[in-house]
Write a structure and sequence with these properties.
The protein is an alpha/beta fold. The chain has seven helices and nine strands, in the order E-H-E-E-E-H-E-E-H-E-H-E-H-H-E-H. The protein has a five-stranded parallel β-sheet with strand order 2-7-1-8-9, with helices on both faces. A four-stranded mixed β-sheet has the order 4-3-6-5. Helix 1 crosses helix 7 and helix 5 runs antiparallel to helix 6. It is globular. The structure holds guanosine-5'-diphosphate (GDP) and adenosine-5'-diphosphate.
């Protein structure tokens, strides 16, 4: 039987660098992860492509997905819905592929309920001042939205204890290396456990 893949959840406040670290991680050849594309009701930003960055949905379409249990988790975040389509995750894991979710904190906590065996990583900013300057530097949000995101960020940082690991995003390549090391260690741990049970069953 094919072993199930690993579910990796990267979470953390808006502007900490989740998207940047994820893209860097996916550009590396020594780790193979499968990105779960989320659905959202937020409007596309310049350059974002439907079905690549997100599945962009109307409120009605999103609520239809909720009603028909098409989402593994969903959350309302600063006025928009975001959610993880369940079929892609289930199918990839059952075929032995490692799935990577990049989602906010409320959603990550819902995934933890459904998949306690997942690997939950919180990406943390070096400081709140640096977080704010990254959000401002990205230039995608109005001042009101930036203040909202900072307010939510403080609440999210309080939840970091619920995660298996906290990775500081001081430099993108260092954060990436830390995440790779965590994923590799988790694979080794699971292989060791699987081998131990296999041996136990052979002896029985
Ligand atoms: N719960 C949940 N959060 C998501 C999902 N997809 C993206 N998010 C999070 O929603 C928040 C806002 O995303 P977005 O508007 O793209 O802004 P950005 O990530 O700050 O650039 C971020 O924290 C994302 O990680 C999802 O499927 N579920
Ligand atoms: N380690 C880092 N050092 C400095 N700037 C960073 C770092 N990681 C990300 N950034 C910048 O911070 C901004 C927010 O990053 P982004 O990946 O959009 O965050 P998130 O997906 O968590 O909202 C971007 O302008 C990005 O270039």
């Amino acid at each position: 039987m094919k072993e199930r893949g690993l579910l990796i959840v990267l979470s953390g406040p808006s502007g900490v660098g989740k998207g940047t670290v994820r893209k860097a991680l996916f550009s590396q050849e020594d780790i193979e992860l499968h990105y779960s594309i989320s659905a959202t009701t937020r409007s596309p930003r310049e350059g974002e492509v439907n079905g690549v960055d997100y599945f962009f949905k109307s409120h009605e379409e999103f609520e239809h997905m909720i009603e028909h249990k098409k989402l593994l988790e969903w959350a309302e975040y600063v006025g928009n819905y975001y959610g993880t389509p369940i079929d892609y995750v289930e199918q990839s894991l059952s075929e032995g592929r490692d799935v990577f979710l990049e989602i906010e904190v409320q959603g990550a906590l819902q995934v933890k309920e459904a998949f306690p065996e997942g690997l939950f990583i919180f990406l943390a900013p070096p400081s709140l001042t640096e977080l704010k300057s990254r959000i401002i530097g990205r230039g995608t949000e109005s001042e009101d939205l930036i203040n909202n995101r900072m307010k939510v960020a403080k609440e999210e940082i309080e939840m970091m204890d619920a995660y298996d690991y906290v990775v500081e995003n001081d430099q993108v390549d260092r954060a990436c290396d830390r995440i790779k090391a965590i994923v590799t260690a988790e694979h080794c741990r699971r292989d060791r456990v699987a081998r131990r049970y296999k041996r136990m069953l052979e002896v029985e």
